[in-house]
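> example.struct
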């Protein structure tokens, strides 16, 4: 029996769940899910089988419009079907997902719940079908399905019981994978802002540059430093300063484009890596961030759990940011001497954007300075953040 599964990076996205919920994920998730299907087939030998998982990024309010993704399967044409999507409201699989109850169909072709789309796509005829929900942390996240028992008889209640037992085992395996994924993410994250930490930044930036060099792509980098942040600490205290950093992190996570890497570099400095971004695109992102921070009202609400230590302060017009922008191809690879290796390119890209950020500070703050329009001078210390 040969099983097929979508790739590890794609599978990783299905494990990003907050308690309900970038970099390579070291667990071989594809092997895990393929082995789980193999075990299901050992329990109840079948012509085909599938595991469907929902997309955790879809808000709860939009669940009726969400889709289930066929992340692993075996059987005829399974190599072409893996990765297919099914609306959560369609078919027996959708019914099991929505109700959280197992289902056996001895005659799917006459079953009003049956969806024949996959049969048509693979020239396969479903004669009997068995489904059980996959439940993690009390919520249904997917469905395991077996199709056409190998001995040419329909599935029965004993088969359903066996699949339900196996579904519980699969759910535990998925829960363990989710826990491992969360633990790994925590080790890469800055606790205060929720962005990546500086250690992971260097790993992620180098990997991004390696890929860009291999594929001839551009990489944009933003070096951001908050203006007048020391004033907040001096006037309102370090607890308020930490809350400001937390809100900046939340803002960046909300407005940054998908696929980028945002990190807290240290103190009130932040790095944004934009794979594939041209100079105008990188500048546009920088200006979007700058304008959002400039107009944002920080600490507008007290902490509902500790309002005495974390009161509303309503800080506006004080915190701004200075941003330096540089790009790999325009500002690093074009340098005399021909920087080409990923480590040197990473260091030069950071240095170039950092120098531009300090030039923005010298010019009065609350500015974006780009390496391709103004050659940066050597870095100098700023008297205030």
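> example.seq
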């Amino acid at each position: 029996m040969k099983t097929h599964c979508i790739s590890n990076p794609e599978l990783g996205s299905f494990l990003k769940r907050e308690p309900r919920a970038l970099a390579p994920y070291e667990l071989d998730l594809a092997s895990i899910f393929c082995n789980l299907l193999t075990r299901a087939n050992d329990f109840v030998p079948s012509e085909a089988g599938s595991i469907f998982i929902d997309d955790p990024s879809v808000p709860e309010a939009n669940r009726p419009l969400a889709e289930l993704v066929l992340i692993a399967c075996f059987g005829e044409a399974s190599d072409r079907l893996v990765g297919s999507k099914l609306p959560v409201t369609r078919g027996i699989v959708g019914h099991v997902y929505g109700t959280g109850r197992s289902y056996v169909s001895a005659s799917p072709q006459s079953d009003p719940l049956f969806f024949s789309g996959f049969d048509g796509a693979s020239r396969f005829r479903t004669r009997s079908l068995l489904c059980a929900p996959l439940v993690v942390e009390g919520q249904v996240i997917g469905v395991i399905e077996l199709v056409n028992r190998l001995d040419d008889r329909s599935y029965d209640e004993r088969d359903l019981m066996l699949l339900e037992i196996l579904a519980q085992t699969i759910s535990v395996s998925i829960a363990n994978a989710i826990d491992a994924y969360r633990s790994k993410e925590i080790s890469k994250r800055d606790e205060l802002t929720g962005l990546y930490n500086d250690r992971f930044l260097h790993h992620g930036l180098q990997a991004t540059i390696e890929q860009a060099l291999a594929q001839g792509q551009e990489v944009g980098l933003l070096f951001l430093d908050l203006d007048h942040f020391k004033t907040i600490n001096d006037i309102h205290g370090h607890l308020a300063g930490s809350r400001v950093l937390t809100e900046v992190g939340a803002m960046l996570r909300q407005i940054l484009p998908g696929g980028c890497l945002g990190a807290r570099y240290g103190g009130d400095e932040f790095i944004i890596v934009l794979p594939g971004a041209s100079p105008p695109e990188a500048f546009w992102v920088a200006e979007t961030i700058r304008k959002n921070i400039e107009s944002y009202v920080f600490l507008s609400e007290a902490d509902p759990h500790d309002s005495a230590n974390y009161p509303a302060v309503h800080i506006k017009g004080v915190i701004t940011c200075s941003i330096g922008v540089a790009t790999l191809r325009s500002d690093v690879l074009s340098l005399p001497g021909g920087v080409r290796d990923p480590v040197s390119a990473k260091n030069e890209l950071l240095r170039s954007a950092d120098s531009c950020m300090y030039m923005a500070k010298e010019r009065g703050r609350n500015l974006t300075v780009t390496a391709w329009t103004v050659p940066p001078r050597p870095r100098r210390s700023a008297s205030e953040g």
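> remarks
The chain has a mean pLDDT of 85.
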